[in-house]
Design brief:
The complex is a heterodimer. Chain A contains 17 helices and 27 strands. By secondary structure, chain A is an alpha+beta fold. By secondary structure, chain B is mostly helical. Chain B has two domains: 91 residues, Helix Hairpins (Orthogonal Bundle), CATH 1.10.287; 104 residues. The chains are: A alpha+beta, B mainly alpha. Chains A and B meet through helix 10, helix 12, strand 19 and strand 22 of A and helix 2, helix 3 and helix 7 of B.
Chain lengths: 626, 207
């Protein structure tokens, strides 16, 4: 298979207008944008600078957060107000990230829906908001590289093994940043697009992607420009950070013995040790021996130690082997033997470690491709996909898969798989269910993601209830539950009772994540400048409340019209129009008034609906008709 | 096969027209074979199936409809999803046979559960070997021979199914009941083979 070598080092002169769409790699350690220009993808680099934005945020005493390189410089001196590795928290709850939190100097809490919140300078931030700051910075850098406004349309990459909640969080982060996401694409698949540009042959490719915080391996077959993912496997909690941590642990053990917890639990120590470890690791990729050294500000503690590459490799051997386990599983799922793989591609900065290159080569029996910078290849691939999506080329097509099986909890806590892992997306599947008790009028559905047999071992994506099943003997109702995964890999589920047509639908709102109204709230209230966070929250809540009142009223007004006097109907219709206008605003007082007026006007309808007569009139209709 | 309502050219697949590019609304009842433009049959060349699936994916994949209006975008997404699901159903011989049996009015998986006594005894024997292998830390010399045996049985079983379903039997005929029994036996075989695969992976991971 012949790969074209991309010359990404020499940028042509910037174009003045925002055309096309950006490809953005939102990474754990670094983020980067690329764009399609002059017939190829190009990394967006402002003159004389790297385009790489370290995914680090620093919150100064006042004003907006500083993002990127400048923020990283604050990590040691002001660790409590400097955040990094935010990606590890996307779509997660506290329990999911206990291990990460133990080594990071953050104070974290959970909101009422179990989404993690990181606290900085007395204000809580969701990982989506924090990622949005990073995305804005990436967009800024792209704008300065282009010499004019960069497009807001973009393709954003995520690790292939990200689950539904993590994908939705990424999409939400982009919306908060004011970006228009054309597609969420898996990082390894994007990388294959960057590498496979001009190839016409066919073959199987393994993409080995070890980033700062996540690991993926993806097996693709390429034929006539169609990139079909056969299988993907990985670990969303294994990355370069873990290799750094092993070196940092050396210092922690040493200093812990001499100075105790007072030093090793100090955030300044943790940051200093981490940065020294990262530096040492990078040096060890170039030379057989390096010195790891750092000072803890304010503690009068200094530490230094020589580390040989051999020692580093034995400290991290189990991490490397974990990546090999994933390779075996991906091959097994793809039903391929090692000999069926024609090309191997390395992606992610952590694949610069010689031990990784050696082990991958040994495992696949092939020299892996490293022609493209492993830190840039994902963004370049995203730019190729952006070009496809904006109509630039139709000769290439990416057929990606869903990394994890999706199913429903059945009686006894078992999981019935509705969509198997590694199914090509978009996809849909329908599963039949029935009632288990006589005259049961509703069924609760528990939507799950994961490979384990029992519901308690899988991740909950959501719960919903199908109501309005007419009373009948157990086992008679025929309920069809339809799962649909869109091209971004995000799931929606609907259920329908087939004799009555009763329906229920959810766009599976992740257990850990933002509700739509929260995202909207952050968008509209311009949270970056929000002086009063409480007010912003109140605005979001009021809008949600009014939104559901509008929805309910529109749903019931026609059915109830006959039972109401003319004046009430007119009042309510006026209030409805007024509420629709008010919901666009951000003023707390105006929203509050609109809500109260609306509630008053809706009272007669609500009373009517409570009434038996109305119930009788509505009987036999489906939820949607009511 | 129908003709395209937009340009009149004959349609290879109901999802879209390869001649004029129009995307069509597809009846809920369209079968996986219809979606992929194939006559229902157990015997199917995998390469041909793959060729059609990628060819039609190019006509309806949502990637090519980002600028289209909402109705067409949704239609493309829906048709794409249905094509992909049809491909998943037909690509595996067991799933394909299962679909054919049900489609022709034969018994469902749950309706024909009984397995012959001697077969069940054999299953118990494999399971015993597998359970012991799982419990022991060292390699088990019985695993690879068992794998070879089960793989051979699986091939025989599929040949049997092919004989029953090719040419397609009459609706509600006895051949469908027999095919269902073979499919049920296949489920036991496949479960054991998956078990062996995960044992192999676990052994590779035991360090």
């Amino acid at each position: 298979m012949g790969y074209v070598e991309l010359n990404v080092l020499n940028n042509p002169s910037p174009e003045p207008t925002a055309v096309g769409a950006l490809g953005i790699d939102l990474g754990t350690t670094n983020s980067l944008a690329a764009i399609w220009r002059d017939g190829r993808p190009t990394v967006l680099r402002p003159e004389g600078r790297s385009g790489l934005v370290p995914s680090v945020l620093h919150f100064p005493e006042s004003g907006p957060p500083i993002v990127g390189r400048e923020a990283r410089d604050h990590a040691i001196v002001d660790p409590r107000n400097t955040l990094f590795s935010v990606k590890r928290f996307m779509g997660r709850g506290l329990a999911d990230v206990a291990r990460e939190l133990a080594t990071l100097p953050y104070s974290a809490t959970e909101n009422e829906r179990g989404s993690i919140q990181l606290e900085v300078r007395g204000r809580k931030y969701s990982p989506e908001e924090l990622s949005a700051f990073i995305l804005r910075k990436v967009h800024e850098v792209a704008t300065s590289a282009l010499g004019g406004p960069a497009p807001t349309k973009c393709v954003i990459t995520v690790p292939a093994y990200f689950d539904d909640a993590q994908r939705q969080s990424t999409r939400d982060a982009a919306r908060i940043a004011g970006l228009d996401v054309l597609r969420i694409v898996n990082e390894p698949t994007a990388a294959s697009l960057a590498y496979g540009l001009d190839q016409r042959d066919k073959g199987n490719v393994a993409v080995f992607d070890l980033g700062g915080g996540t690991f993926d391996v993806t097996i693709l077959s390429i034929e006539d420009g169609v990139f079909r993912v056969l299988a993907t496997n990985g670990d969303t909690r294994l990355g370069g950070d873990d290799f750094d941590q092993r070196l940092a642990d050396l210092a922690r053990d040493d200093l812990g013995r001499d100075h105790g917890d007072a030093v090793t639990h100090d955030p300044a120590f943790q940051q200093a040790a981490r940065q020294a470890a990262e530096h040492c690791k990078i040096e060890l990729s170039k030379q057989p021996e390096s010195e790891m050294h750092f000072m803890v500000p304010g503690k009068r503690v200094a530490w230094r130690r020589r580390v040989a590459r051999d020692e580093f490799e034995s400290l991290t051997a189990d991490l490397v082997e974990r990546t090999m386990d994933s390779c075996r599983r991906a091959l097994s799922d793809a039903k391929l033997a090692i000999g069926d793989i024609h090309e191997v591609v390395l992606v992610g900065g952590s694949t610069r470690m010689p031990v990784i290159r050696r082990r991958v080569q040994q495992f696949f029996g092939r020299v892996p491709h490293t022609e493209l910078d492993p830190d840039e290849v994902v963004a370049l691939g995203a730019a190729v996909q952006a070009q496809i999506l904006t109509g630039g080329r139709r000769d290439m097509l990416l057929l990606d898969v869903t990394p994890l099986s999706l199913g429903l909890e059945t009686m006894g806590g078992a999981v019935s798989k509705v969509i198997q892992r590694n199914s090509t997306i978009p996809c849909e599947a329908t599963e039949g269910f029935t009632t288990y008790a006589d005259d049961q009028t509703g069924i609760d559905f528990h939507v799950l993601q994961g490979e384990r047999e029992m519901a308690r071992d899988c991740r909950t994506l959501g719960r919903f209830k199908l109501k309005g099943i007419p009373p009948m003997p157990a086992g008679m109702a025929r309920v069809a539950v339809r799962f649909h995964i869109d091209a971004d890999g995000v799931l929606s589920v609907s259920a329908k009772e087939q004799s009555t047509g009763a329906t229920a639908h959810i766009d599976v709102a992740p257990m850990h994540g933002l509700t739509d109204s929260e995202v909207e709230g952050m968008l509209h209230s311009g949270f970056a400048n929000a002086v009063d966070d409480f007010a912003a929250r109140r605005v979001a809540d009021l809008r949600t409340e009014i939104g559901s009142m509008i929805h309910a009223t529109e749903k019931h007004l026609n059915a109830g019209r006959a039972g109401l006097d003319k004046e009430s109907v007119q009042d309510l219709e006026e209030a409805l129009t007024h509420a629709k206008a008010a919901i666009q605003g951000v003023d707390v007082k105006a929203l509050q008034k609109a809500r109260d007026d609306f509630e008053r006007a809706a009272l007669p309808l609500a009373a009517l609906l409570m009434n038996n007569v109305a119930q009788k009139a509505l009987r036999g209709k489906t939820l949607d008709e009511v | 096969m129908q003709n395209c309502s937009a340009c009149g050219a004959p349609l290879e697949t109901p999802v879209a027209c390869g001649t004029c590019g129009a995307v069509h609304a597809v009846a809920e009842s369209a079968t996986p074979f219809e979606l992929l433009g194939l006559a229902p049959s157990f015997r199917l060349e995998e390469r041909e199936l793959r060729r059609r699936s990628t060819r039609y994916a190019r006509w309806v994949h949502p990637d090519f409809f980002t600028a289209a209006d909402t109705r067409f975008r949704e239609l493309a997404e829906r048709n794409s999803a249905r094509l992909n699901s049809a491909f998943e159903t037909l690509a595996q011989p067991t799933q394909r046979a299962d679909w054919l049996v049900v489609h022709l009015g034969g018994p469902s998986e749950d309706a024909e559960r009984a397995m012959p006594q001697p077969f069940l005894l054999e299953v118990l024997e494999w399971n015993e070997v597998l359970e012991e292998a799982r419990a022991s830390a060292g390699p088990d010399s019985r695993i690879e021979p068992l794998f070879a045996e089960l793989t051979a049985r699986r091939a025989e079983n599929l040949a049997q199914i092919e004989e029953l379903l090719e040419p397609l039997p009459e609706r509600n005929s006895d051949a469908l009941v027999l095919a269902r029994r073979e499919l049920n036996a296949l489920r036991y075989l496949d479960r054991a083979l998956r078990e062996i695969e995960s044992l192999r992976l676990a052994r590779a991971e035991r360090r």
